[in-house]
Amino acid sequence: MTQSVSETVSQSVPPAPPTIFWFIPTHGDGSYLGSETRQRPPEFGYFREVATAVDRLGFKGVLLPTGQSCEDSWITAAGLATATERLKFLVALRPGVTTPVFAARQAAALDRLSDGRLLLNLVVGGNPRELAADGVFLNHDERYAQAREFVSIWRRLVSGEAVNHEGPYYRVENGRLDFPTVQEHLPLYFGGSSDAGHDVAAEQVDLYLSWGEPPAQLAGKIAAVREKAARLGRSIRFGIRLHFIVRETESEAWEAANRLISRVSDQQIADAQKRFSQEMDSVGQARMAALHGGRRDKLEISPNLWAGIGLVRTGAGTALVGDPQSVAARIREYQALGIDTIVGSGYPHLEEAYRVAELLFPVLGLDGRRTTVRRQIANEFSVGSHGPASAPTLHAAE
C-alpha cells in the first residue's frame, strides 16, 4: 500500500521535545546506593546548588519529595523559589496530614512568593506505618476517598469560592482565601496505580504521573486512566518518573549503573524488599518490586530500562541507561504512549543534571541554557578563534 505524504512526514518527524523536570534530593544524595561512602547530607545549601544548576541548564521544574525521611517540601520550596528564576516547584499536597483550607492558604502563599511557579503533587501515601506516625489511620481505599473530598474543597478555595461543606472526612464553615493565587488554575499532578487511584486521577487531576515501567506495561495503565477520564468528559495529560544514567557510550553507562549498586549487599536487598511487601499497601510499589523480584541478574527489564535502583529504593526504582541516542529513542517510545512530561533524577543529582542537560537535551531538541558569553569565544575548549586575530597561547606551565 502506498503511504500518503502526511503519513510519511509523521513517521519521519520526531515528536516535540518533552518537558523535563529534575529532583531535589531532600533525603540526601550520594554516589553509591547502600553505602555511606561519598554521601551528601540533606542540607539546604546543597539543595540550592542543585536547584540553581537545573534552573540555568533549562530544566522546567523540580519535584520535592515528601515523607518522614525528607526535609519539608513546602518550606524547602519557599527557600528555593527565592534563589531561582524560571523553575517550577512540584510540591506535595497531603490529604489527611493537613486540612484542605490550610493547604489552600499555603498554596496561595507559595504561588505568590514564586510568582506563579507552583505545581501540586497529590500524595495519598502508601505506607500505613508512616501514615500512622502522622496520625492517619485510614485503609487504602478510604485514603483515596478522603483525597477526592479534600481536592474538591481545596480546588474550590483556590478558585476563589467561599466554601461550606460537610462530608465524611471534612467539615468547613465559611472557608475562604483572602489572598489569591497568581495562577488562575493551580495544576495538580498525581500518581496512583490502583483502581481507586485511577478514579481520583480521572476525576480530579491535570497530569497523571507513573513510575517508570516498561512501555508495554505502562500502556495499559495510561489507557485505563484515559478511558475513565473520557467517561467524565475530561482529558488528562501523562508523565513518567525516571532516573537517568546517560554517558557518551553504552558501555560507560552500564558500567556507571553497575557501580551505583556495587556496594549494596544481598542482605540490604532482602531487607528492603521485605519492608516494601510487609509495610506498604501501595499497588505502585508492588508493581515496581515485581519488575525485578529482588534479583540482581534480571535488572534490564526492557531495552535500556534498568530496575537496579528499586532493589533498595522505595518508589521510583527504574532508570534509563545508555548513550544519548538510545535513551532518546526510549523516551520517544514513551511519548508515543502519550507521555509529555518526565520527572528525572540521578546519583549524585548535581552531576547527573549536567550530564542529562549536556548529553541528552541536544538529542531531544532541548536547549534551555542561558549563556552569558559568546559561544565562539577563543579559549582552550574552542576550535579556531573569535574576535582578535590571534588568541592567547596557553603554555604547559600554566
TrEMBL record:
Keywords in alphabetical order: Flavoprotein, FMN, Monooxygenase, Oxidoreductase
Keyword Flavoprotein assigned: yes
This protein's record includes keyword Oxidoreductase: yes
Coiled-coil segments on the chain, per record: none
Every Luciferase-like domain range: 20-340
Catalytic activity, as annotated: an alkanesulfonate + FMNH2 + O2 = an aldehyde + FMN + sulfite + H2O + 2 H(+)
Entry EC number(s): 1.14.14.5
Example of a GO MF term: alkanesulfonate monooxygenase activity
One GO BP annotation of this record: alkanesulfonate catabolic process
UniProt function note: Catalyzes the desulfonation of aliphatic sulfonates.
Family: Belongs to the SsuD family.
The protein's name: Alkanesulfonate monooxygenase
Organism: Azorhizobium oxalatiphilum
